[in-house]
Amino acid sequence: RLKGHPKLTATFERLSDARRWAAEKEAPLRAGRGRHFQTRPGDRVTLAQVIDRYLEECLPRHAGSDRKAIRQRLGWWRAELGGERLSAITPAVLEGCRERLEGKSNECSGRGVISGTTQRHYLKQLGALLGQAVKWRLIETNPMNQVAKPPGSPGRVRFLDREELPRFLAACRASTCPGFYAAVLLALSTGMRRGEMRQLTWERVDLERGHIVLDQATTKGRVTRGVPLTGEALAVLREHARVRRPDSALLFPGRDGRKARDFSRPFAAALQEAGLTNFRWHDLRHTAASYMVMSGASLATVGALLGHRTLQMTQRYAHLADDFLKGEVARMTARLFDPGRQTTS
What we know:
The protein is an all-alpha fold and 345 residues long. 48% of the residues lie in helices and 3% in strands. It has helices at residues 15-30, 47-57, 64-81, 91-102, 116-135, 164-173, 180-190, 194-198, 231-242, 264-274, 282-294, 299-306, 311-314, 322-337; strands spanning 205-206, 211-214, 225-228. The chain has a three-stranded antiparallel beta sheet with strand order 1-2-3, with no helix packed on it.
C-alpha cells in the first residue's frame, strides 16, 4: 500500500519472494513513475457491485423456480464479502467463508447447521458469479476453483409405497381445494417439478393427444421437455379443464388469477389424514420416478422424462429395479436352459 495509489495484492509461498515482489512494485512509484503501475479492473469494483450486475444480467436466464434460491445465496455472500474489492477475494478468503458457512444455521428449515449439499450450493453459486466475472474481464482467474468443497449427500429418495399410496390419494380426492387432486395426480403421473407445474399454462397442454410441452424458461435445465399424459391424470385434467378460469392462463391459478395456487395447506391436511410423515411435495416426483423404475423403465428413460441433466441424478433409483431385473433374468435363464418351455411376461 502506498498513499495515492490503489492496493495491489499477490500471494507467495516464501516471505523473501513477497518482499522482493513488493520492492519491485514500489520502486517505480517512489521514483515518480506511477504510470508503470497497472491497476486491474478487479481493484475498482466490489463484490456487491458484481452481484448487482449478475442479478440484473444473468438471473433472468435462470429458471423462475431457481431465482429465489440464487438471490438468497448471493445475499449471504453480499453480507460476508460485499464490501471487498473483487481482486482481494482470494482462495484463502473464501476458505475462511467456507468455515463460517459450515456453522451457518439453516434458518429456513430450523434443522440446525446446513447440510454439506447446501454448503456446496452456496460455494458453487459464488463460483458461478466469479466465473462470470472472468468472462467480463474483471479478474483473470476464478479463485473458487482452488477451494475444496464439502461432499454432497447421496440424495433423498422417499416415495409412497403400495400401502401408503391409496391412503394418500383417497385423502387428496376428499379435499375441497380446487385443483388440488388434479395437481397431485399430475405430479405423480409425470414427475414434474413443483415450479414447472406452478408456471404451467393451458396453451402448453394438449388434452386431445395427451401431451404437455414444458417451455425452457420454466424447466430447471433450461431445455424444452415433452411430458406424456395418460390414464387417470389425463381424465382428471380434462374434468379440471371444464371449470378453468377464463381470466387466467395458469393451470392452477390462485385467487387473483395471476399467481399459482399454493397447495401447502391441503397437502399437509392430506398427509395428516393419510397418517404419513417425513413426506414433502418434491417426494411426489421421487414416487413417480421410483414406480417408473420398478415397472421396468430404463434409467435413461426415467432421466429423460424427469429432465435430469446427468445420469448420476437418476442413479439413486437404480436399486429399485432389482425385482424387475430378477424377473427378466429368470425369463432369460428359462429360455436359455429350457428352450422348449414357453414363458410369458
